[in-house]
């Protein structure tokens, strides 16, 4: 049985005070749920504040939205995985489509980040997903195959157990256009098959694969009902407590 994950990506939103207030509200709601992992990803500036505002045994886990692939050195503006551990993070999101598109991150760099994050003890949420153009040109499966095989390249079984994949079709992120549950299920099942081919059947069965792209209170139940959808990575709808609490309480 794969334990579902509901993760909120706050992107470049929220002051420290706003972030700690929202996290406290979400932590109280998450404490009532023992059958789902709830994760929030505040901006870097709010990470330590959010962790500090949560009770030591909080059910809410804290993720960073990115990190660099080196542990220290002359990398102005970058954050090391060990610094995220020091700030109290348990997870890091890597390979988000905004990092790929706006900041030019490629699969090779993302793979180095995955290795560095795992070596520091973090869990990784690896984002993959095709653009609308790639889908329309029927290149979606090739793109997903490359992103999965290159992103996870060189990982051993123990490390893989600390990776979660987030399938986020780029055309559905922040657009209000969600993939139908059929489209998402088809992609998730394909991705699980890829993991099976690369690492083995039991690793594929254990891998949590989240859906991301305009997830909202209105569509979460339909997505979570599908066999290969193990949770959601939520952007816009994670910024308000009411919506995100409804999403973490998806029908089950
Ligand atoms: C995201 O940023 O990962 C995301 C899925 O955003 P949204 O839910 O706003 O589409």
TrEMBL record:
Record pathway: Carbohydrate biosynthesis; gluconeogenesis; Carbohydrate degradation; glycolysis; D-glyceraldehyde 3-phosphate from glycerone phosphate: step 1/1
EC class name: isomerase
Highest taxon, organism lineage: Bacteria
UniProt: substrate binding residues: 9-11, 174, 214, 235-236
Primary localisation category: cytoplasm
Function of the molecule: Involved in the gluconeogenesis. Catalyzes stereospecifically the conversion of dihydroxyacetone phosphate (DHAP) to D-glyceraldehyde-3-phosphate (G3P).
InterPro entries noted in UniProt: Aldolase_TIM (IPR013785), TIM_sf (IPR035990), TrioseP_Isoase_bac/euk (IPR022896), Triosephosphate_isomerase (IPR000652), Triosephosphate_isomerase_AS (IPR020861)
Entry keyword annotation includes Metal-binding: no
Complex formation: Homodimer.
GO biological process assignments: gluconeogenesis; glyceraldehyde-3-phosphate biosynthetic process; glycerol catabolic process; glycolytic process
EC number(s) from the headed UniProt entry: 5.3.1.1
Alphabetical keyword list: Cytoplasm, Gluconeogenesis, Glycolysis, Isomerase
Protein family: Belongs to the triosephosphate isomerase family.
Signal peptide coordinates: none
Substrates-to-products reaction catalysed: D-glyceraldehyde 3-phosphate = dihydroxyacetone phosphate
Protein name, UniProt field: Triosephosphate isomerase
GO cellular component: cytosol
MF (Gene Ontology): triose-phosphate isomerase activity
Entry annotation: catalytic residues: 96 (electrophile), 168 (proton acceptor)
Compartments, as annotated in UniProt: Cytoplasm
């Amino acid at each position: 049985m794969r334990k579902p994950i509901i993760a909120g990506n706050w992107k470049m939103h929220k002051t420290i005070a706003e972030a700690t207030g929202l996290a406290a509200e979400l932590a109280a709601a998450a404490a009532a749920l023992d059958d789902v992992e709830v994760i929030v990803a505040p901006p870097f500036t709010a990470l330590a504040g959010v962790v500090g505002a949560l009770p030591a045994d909080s059910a809410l886990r804290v993720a960073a939205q990115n990190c660099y692939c080196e542990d220290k050195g002359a990398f102005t503006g970058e954050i090391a995985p060990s610094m995220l551990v020091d700030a109290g993070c348990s997870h890091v999101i890597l390979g988000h489509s905004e990092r790929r598109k706006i900041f030019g991150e490629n699969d090779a760099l993302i793979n180095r980040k995955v290795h560095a994050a795992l070596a520091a003890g973090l869990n990784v949420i690896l984002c993959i997903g095709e653009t609308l153009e790639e889908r329309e040109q029927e290149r979606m499966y090739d793109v997903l195959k490359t992103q999965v095989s290159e992103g996870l390249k060189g990982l051993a079984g123990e490390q893989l157990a600390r990776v979660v994949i987030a399938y986020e079709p780029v055309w559905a992120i922040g657009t209000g256009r969600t993939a139908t549950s059929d489209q998402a299920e088809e992609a998730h099942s394909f991705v699980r098959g890829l993991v099976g081919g690369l690492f083995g059947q039991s690793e594929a069965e254990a891998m949590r694969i989240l859906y991301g792209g305009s997830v909202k209170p209105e569509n979460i139940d339909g997505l979570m009902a599908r066999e290969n959808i193990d949770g959601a990575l939520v952007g816009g709808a994670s910024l308000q407590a009411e919506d995100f609490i409804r999403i973490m309480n998806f029908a089950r």
